[in-house]
Amino acid sequence: MTRNGNTTAGTLRRVGAVAGAAAVLMSVLPAGAAVAAQQGVRSGRAAWCPEVEGLRVDCGTVNRPVVSGKPWLGSVAVAYAVLRHRDAGPARGTVAVNPGGPGETAIERAGAFAAGLAGVLGSHDVLLVDPRGTGRSGRIPCGVTDAEYRFADRAGQRDAVARCAAALGPRAEGYTSAATADDLDAVRARIGAASLVPYGLSYGTYLMPVYASRHPGRVDSMVLSGAYPLNVDPLARPSTEAVSLALKRVCERSAACDGGTAVEDLRTVAGRLRERPFTLRVEAAGATRTLRFTEDKLANLLYEAASRGAGESPAERSLLGELPAALHGSANGDDRALRALVDADYRAAGREDQASFLAVVCNDYPRAWSVDSALPERWREYRAALSAADPGRFGAFSVKGFTEGQTDGADACIRWPRNGTARPQPVDAAQPDVPVLLFAGDLDSNTPESANTPESATRRAADRFRRSTVVTVPNAGHVAELESTHCTLGIVDSFVRTGRPGDTSCTAAVPPIAVSPVRR
Is the CB of residue 443 less than 8 Å from the CB of residue 252? Predict the structure, then answer.
């Protein structure tokens, strides 16, 4: 289950993927709005501190240990930028945004955040922190690029994880959600904020509850968009049903295809790729690469990539809107449309190093084996979990085909060392009793809310909070703030200012996405 919310080639990371927030918020910039985020130097300011038209921006760094209690592993300077509120008098609070990934940066996109959170910035400051190991906060490399990781087959991805761990060495222990959460609180103290409104998108919805559990007295309220729980299913079973549901919904709402046929076409194509993968040459990250397109790559395309950006420009062509026709052609022996979609998606692969992403997911996330087990025993435990899994829970895919489509789950981290690295994040940590707003796009297969199962990601995340409100946004993917009407950001504004989402009926006006007709 990639938790990246990213939407642009230049910020492509796992996310999943979720980028995303910066690209999300930039996408809702009103036409003609004047927002600048140039790099500049002012008296007393760091050269990297962004300038945002109409706002004061304060920047700085906080020195933090890489691993608490192990000074010999060094320290990291965690960088932050505070966008100051516009109204007279003191700020009514501070909204701390994490854009996802893991590994996405925030400071360089200050202008985009200022645009998307223009309403919030009337009364509240907005805090942007580059998580440790990224951007201005001591970027760490491990020699595994986004393009390499995406194009590799499953064995190659496991090899890449092992190489990354070896390159990081004992410092790998320091790149966790818990450490990032403690960094955030150290920044909070440095800027003099008594408390925060944590706002997480995609992976940020995992990080911010970690922050809340570790610093409960410092949380006023919380916004989580594209949410998934701390006890996320390492086999991503809720996403399998959501893939089929998204295809059915776009077909029904567009009348361009039949949802049942689209799901059967997906089943046919997955089965064929299981036996006979195809290959294609793709120009990506400045090089020509060969991709072997297998069932697991198809699964990743359907549940991760197709959710990303769905609803952003509903009248324009999108991956999700093109898939029913492409799958129908492929199921009937014509792969040209599917190949074109795969080519376009993989061209977005970049040169970004994946150290911060791999370290966080392999240190933190639940897995289907004991981290205390040696590698042979891990494999036995993992295969036992696969054998015990109900094949009926994997929709159009085989158990192996779907699970290996996850770039941050299943067996991806099975070779991550058991010594000298962090232990998985506790999944039942107590949460503060504060208002929590959660958004879910009903076309999101990455962190699904509306799958017909009690294990749906957003509902399980919401259950950890006594005062939670889930707003399901129709015709939106991962994350819902990408939708074209700006409705969701208005709800965020109301919630931050009042602790209540207010009138959410505007979600009914979010238009359906365009879908290419399926020729029968």
Answer: no
Give the C-alpha separation, 169 to 272, whole Å. Answer: 41
Which amino acid belongs to residue 435? P
What are the strands, taking DSSP E only, across 135-263? 197-201, 222-225
The residue among 196 and 20 whose pLDDT is bigger is 196
Q: Which of 501, 493, 490, 231 is nearest to 510 (CA)?
A: 490
Yes or no: say if 278 and 335 are a contact pair by the CB < 8 Å rule: yes
Paired tokens of 176:
């966790």
- Across 84-205, where does the E strand assignment appear? 94-98, 125-129, 197-201
Which secondary-structure segment (H or E) carries 339? helix 336-346
Beta strands in 134-204 (DSSP E): 197-201
Could you give the CA distance from residue 369 to residue 362 in angstroms, rounded to a whole number? 12
Q: What is the dihedral of CA 294, 300, 305, 311, to 10 degrees?
A: 120
- In one letter, which amino acid is 277? P
- Alpha-carbon separation of residue 520 from 170, 174, 412, 516, 517 (angstroms): 58, 55, 39, 13, 9
User: Residue 169: left (phi > 0), alpha (psi -120 to 50), or beta?
Assistant: left
Which is nearest to 363 in space by CA: 418, 289, 315? 418
* Spatial separation of the C-alpha atoms in residues 290 and 293, rounded to whole Å: 9
What is the reported pTM?
0.92
Are 479 and 492 spatial neighbours (Cβ–Cβ below 8 Å)? no
Q: Within 10 Å of residue 287's Cβ, how many Cβ atoms?
A: 12
Pairwise CA distance, residues 219 & 433, whole Å: 9
Residue 46 vs residues 39, 58, 268, 348, 375: alpha-carbon distances, Å: 10, 9, 56, 32, 46
Q: At what angle do helices 319-331 and 259-275 cross, to 10 degrees?
A: 70
CA angle 202, 206, 207 (to 5 degrees): 105
3-state helix, strand, coil in the chain (%, to 5): 40, 15, 45
Query: Would you state the structure tokens that stand for residue 274, as one six-digit string?
Result: 């299981």
d(CA 369, CA 327): 35
How far is 142 from 131, CA to CA, in rounded Å? 16
Report whether pLDDT(70) > 90: yes
Which tens digit of pLDDT belongs to each residue from 140-164?
999 999 999 999 999 999 999 999 9
Q: Please give the angle made by the CA atoms of 237, 242 and 245, to the nearest 5 degrees.
A: 145
Dihedral sign (CA 174, 175, 181, 186): positive
Q: How far apart are CA 117 and CA 125, in angstroms?
A: 10
The amino acid that residue 343 corresponds to is D
Residues in contact with 384: Cβ distance below 8 Å, sequence separation at least 6, in sequence order: none
Handedness of CA 126, 129, 135, 137 (dihedral sign): positive
Answer whether residue 2 shows pLDDT above 70.
no
Residue 275 main-chain phi, psi, to 5 deg: -95, -35
